[in-house]
Prior knowledge:
Layout: E1 12-18, E2 21-27, E3 50-58, E4 64-68, E5 75-83, H1 84-91, E6 96-98, E7 101-103, E8 108-113, E9 122-124, E10 135-139, E11 144-151, E12 156-163, E13 166-167, E14 181-183, E15 188-191, E16 193-195, E17 200-207, E18 227-239
Parallel strand pairs: 5-10
Antiparallel strand pairs: 1-2, 3-17, 4-18, 5-18, 6-9, 7-8, 8-11, 11-15, 11-17, 12-13, 12-14, 12-18, 16-17
Amino acid sequence: MIDRLHRSRLFKFATGLVAGAALLAACSQMPQAVTTNSAAPAAATAPRLGTQWGEGLESKTRTVVAKRLSAQPDDTASLGYNEAGAVRRAVGSNPERRLNLLLADGDVEWSVLDETGSPLPLQRARRGSGGDDMFRLAGVEGSRYTLRFRNLSERSYEVIATVDGLDVLNGRPGSLRNGGYVLGPMQALTIEGFRKSESEVAAFRFVTPGRAYAANTEAGDVRNIGVIGAALFELEQRDVPRRQRRDASPQQQPSAFPADGSYAPPPRYRQ
């Protein structure tokens, strides 16, 4: 088990899966307080799908220190999702179709995978047909999905991801100030769910909006249900050696800052 690093004014921390090993990033350059544009509804029609706080999946972490090269992201992108009929109405009869999006001038490939590991088709209204510029994917209630980022370059990136307007690491409203997952050169990053701890995430599953995590946690806003966001920051990066804990006691210690939890709190479903 790794040591938990404490937050300060100079560092932000995050976790992620990179090529089978998870990383805990600490960004030493703080960007301005700018929220992501994931607050916009995913479609003109009401969302019929949201994302559930699903079953627990093992996802371990290790620690790195990483510095952003700029306070501004190298790229941001949003994907809308809904059930198939709503997506068809949004994109029209002859949409543009892709299996992935290329971000940061082609450095990073972003796709959404189904339970079998196959990419879900992304659709967008043809330009000039009156639709907006967002790609959308059709989900199936109850099915699981994952976010997949593949670095095609020799650069390192920090990936901030949001689902239904909530940061997938801490469960708070998405912001470019948050820390993100580290994506090393020529490596892949798979985000399987909302992070519960250093060793576990809650799986992403399509669900009716009323059962979505965003509808059942204080930080959520139902107006953001139906959109997935991503932001990339290029990084300087170096590994941090493991630090031995002085106390081996398994008992939980009192916290002077109990509100500063690192990970996403579980949902509280309304009766």
